[in-house]
Design goal:
The protein is α/β, with parallel strands linked by helices. It contains 13 helices and 10 strands. The strands form 2 sheets. The chain has an 8-stranded mixed beta sheet with strand order 1-2-4-3-5-6-9-10, with helices on both faces. Strands 7-8 form a two-stranded antiparallel sheet. It is globular.
Length: about 350
């Protein structure tokens, strides 16, 4: 059987999404925008940028207005000494949509972008039609050991070695080699499955301002013990919101077990696990990702926000009867919700 990475989308003629720039609060914000129709907001992960969505944007733009920003500190957006918390990023998404005159969106977030998407849904529920979380951060502590290590001040200095002459050429060569192995029978295993994409992300970090912004972002959500933010204690607020969870079963950055925890904690959510995919399922198998996403969009109505209902949810809080799944999953969700180190954002 061929690797998911060999399944390519047909190009859409004259539909290459171009970068657009707007200045908000004095900072330049870069984003890609294409198409017409109901709005989709695509939020990338840490160290990445809007280009990560390029393969699927033209296809989604045939029926939707697609907005894919470079988060502040990423891509072609400015990289100031600023607040890089998920709450600040959610505010930034609200401001960008306001500048563009977009009142409500379906929010699609990958990795860190999933955490931002959840925070956006929490802070601005009246603006959210649906929520799609792709290999999302912000569920519970587990995260790749290298991200924990990178959050430690002394260890993070190692990234500066990428500035040495020829260093990135060697890294890219290794990434290309592993990428080719992923398409053969000599696959190097799940541990190295996402190496080509991770090398692509690393390529932007030798720039000093990008490196500092990356560290500020990472330390806002990860320390040496793992992720420091969880959304499990507020998942009950999505009871009426259409939610889709997409994960790769070979994800070693944020394990697929997080998908099952989130699915258990989010009443009525859908879960789609991609076999053979890693941390970037929309890049591993874009055809399948588009099929799952478009089916979800077509089969679910936009949320009609009810402020009174939202207030009643907050007053009542979460109950154990709202958590689904088997006994071990339910215990894991309740354990994460009861941890004394949860973020209070």
């Amino acid at each position: 059987m061929s690797s998911p990475r060999t399944r390519k989308l047909r190009p859409v003629p004259d539909a290459e999404p171009k970068l657009i720039f707007r200045t908000i609060h004095g900072y330049r914000r870069a984003f890609r925008m294409a198409g017409e129709g109901p709005a989709l907001l695509l939020i990338h992960g840490i160290g990445d940028n809007s280009e990560t969505w390029n393969a699927i944007i033209p296809h989604l733009a045939q029926n939707h207005t697609v907005i894919a920003p470079d988060l502040l500190g990423h891509g072609q957006s400015d990289k100031p000494r600023a607040d890089y918390s998920v709450a600040a990023y959610a505010n930034g998404m609200r401001d960008l949509l306001s500048v563009l005159g977009v009142d409500h969106v379906t929010v699609i977030g990958h990795s860190l972008g999933g955490g931002v998407a959840m925070q956006f849904s929490y802070q601005f529920p009246h603006m959210v039609d649906r929520l799609v979380l792709v290999s999302s951060g912000g569920v519970t502590k587990d995260v790749h050991p290298l991200l924990r290590l990178a959050s430690v001040p002394l260890a993070s200095e190692a990234v500066k070695l990428l500035r040495l002459p020829g260093a990135m050429s060697v890294v890219r060569l290794a990434g290309n080699l592993i990428g080719k192995l992923n398409t053969t029978r000599l696959r190097p295993g799940a541990l190295l499955h996402d190496t080509p994409d991770l090398v692509r992300v690393l390529a932007g970090l030798p720039d000093p301002t990008a490196h500092e912004a990356y560290l500020r972002t990472l330390r806002a959500v990860v320390d040496w013990r793992g992720q420091v933010v969880t959304m499990l204690d507020r998942c009950y607020l999505t009871e009426n919101l259409p939610v889709l969870l997409v994960w790769g079963d070979r994800d070693v950055v944020i394990p697929v077990s997080h998908a099952h925890l989130a699915h258990s904690a989010m009443p009525g959510s859908r879960l789609s696990v991609f076999r053979g995919a890693g941390h970037f399922p929309f890049r591993d198998d874009p055809m399948h990702f588009l099929h799952v996403l478009e089916e979800f969009l077509a089969s679910t109505p936009c949320l009609e926000f009810d402020e009174t209902r939202w207030r009643n949810f907050l007053i009542a809080g979460v109950g154990e009867d709202m958590i689904t799944g088997n006994a071990s999953t339910r215990r894991a969700v309740l354990g994460a919700m009861g941890a004394d180190e949860r973020s209070a954002t």
